[in-house]
Amino acid sequence: MTFIWPQALLLLILVPLGILAWRWIDRRQRQKVAAFGQLGGSAAVAASGAGSTGSGRFGRFRWRLPAFLYIVGISVLVFALARPQGTVDVPRQEGTVILAFDVSGSMAATDLLPTRMAAAKAAAIDFVQRQPSSVVIGVIAFSDSGISVQQPSNDQDTVVAAINRLTPQKGTSVGQGIAASLKAIQVQLAGPTVNYYSNKSPAPTASPTPVPTGYHAPAVIVLLTDGENNENPDPVTVAQTAADQGVRIYTVGIGSAAGTNLDLNGFQVHTELDAASLQQIAQVTGGTYYAADDAASLKSIYDNLDTQLIVKAENIELTALFAGAGILLLVLGGALSLVWLGRLP
């Protein structure tokens, strides 16, 4: 147990001093009663401390218990004044989710209504709005390159705004999307210490030591794409890098296997879902491949994405608990004193 204001514990010194003062006053009162109690053995009764409470052990118990409760209650209130903290294991949903959106021209196809892009955005927004604040979400957009549109954040309005800004662009490099997602996870784990304006050359990053598949469970990448890769690097090779870092990739196939024709700058282009490539990426990283045949199935996919339920040690202030216990002891001591002795301790 720790204390926010430990200096307040010095007040505990006053407790034994108060006990000594109380005993001295009580002894003086007994002496006065004994001096005047000459009739019917009243001096002996007064000196015994029993009075109207009875005699023997039970009488002494009824005399001492209220005072004891008062002393303990005051001590507990002093602890409350020091604002104690305790470490408690709190279960909560936690994780980092990177939504990697394919924004290539083929995402404007209409085999998933109203378009592949619009359906993917709607389902992602619904997912974001259902997450607890302990889950941070980042947004990556990739076409022929990958870029972080929104660093991982638990500000849902900011994440939704970033998703709404996405529009179809150029070619498709799934590998660049995965690489940009891994970079976003690294920045999130590193915290705010990165100096983006430094002119110093960074030290080379060591190659990660491979870890068990899916080891870094709280961080996952959700790759939303039709899988038609036409740019370097090879997405399976980059997926292996993610696997070496223990990051799972859930691939979501946007579109249909039959495909559709798309008008791009006056040219008719046939685009179709490359499910085999997306299945391979998911398998390499220990993730899962999902086929989104329509908008409804796309939304249901997010229900199967598991951010991890973990038990995390947190410091919780226990002031209210100690204050309540101290007040309860004082009230109990006062009530017993009034009932048994006809006065407060």
Give the topology, please.
Layout: E1 2-3, H1 14-36, H2 42-48, H3 56-81, E2 84-102, H4 116-129, E3 135-142, E4 146-153, H5 156-164, H6 174-190, E5 219-225, H7 235-244, E6 248-254, E7 260-264, E8 267-271, H8 275-285, E9 289-292, H9 295-302, E10 308-317, H10 319-341
Parallel strand pairs: 2-3, 2-5, 5-6, 6-9
Antiparallel strand pairs: 1-2, 2-10, 3-4, 7-8
Helix pairs in contact: 1-2, 3-10, 4-5, 4-9, 6-7, 7-8
**Count of helix runs:** 10
Separation of the first and last Cα atoms: 31 Å
Largest sheet: 8 strands, mixed
Order of helices and strands: EHHHEHEEHHEHEEEHEHEH
Please identify the structural class as seen in this structure.
alpha/beta
- Helical content (DSSP H or I, runs of 4+): 40-55%
| Morphology call | rod-shaped
Give the uncertain stretches in residue-range form.
39-53
| Total number of strands | 10
Radius of gyration: 35 Å
Range of strand content: 15-25%
| Average pLDDT number | 78
What does this structure look like?
- The two termini are 31 Å apart.
- This protein is α/β, with parallel strands linked by helices.
- A hairpin with a 2-residue loop joins strand 7 and strand 8 (267-271).
- The longest helix is centred in the N-terminal third of the chain and has 26 residues, at 56-81.
- The strands form 2 sheets. Strands 1, 2, 3, 4, 5, 6, 9 and 10 form an 8-stranded mixed beta sheet that branches. Strands 7-8 form a two-stranded antiparallel sheet.
- The protein has helices at 14-36, 42-48, 56-81, 116-129, 156-164, 174-190, 235-244, 275-285, 295-302, 319-341, and strands at residues 2-3, 84-102, 135-142, 146-153, 219-225, 248-254, 260-264, 267-271, 289-292, 308-317.
- It has 10 helices and 10 strands.
- The chain is rod-shaped, with a radius of gyration of 35 Å.
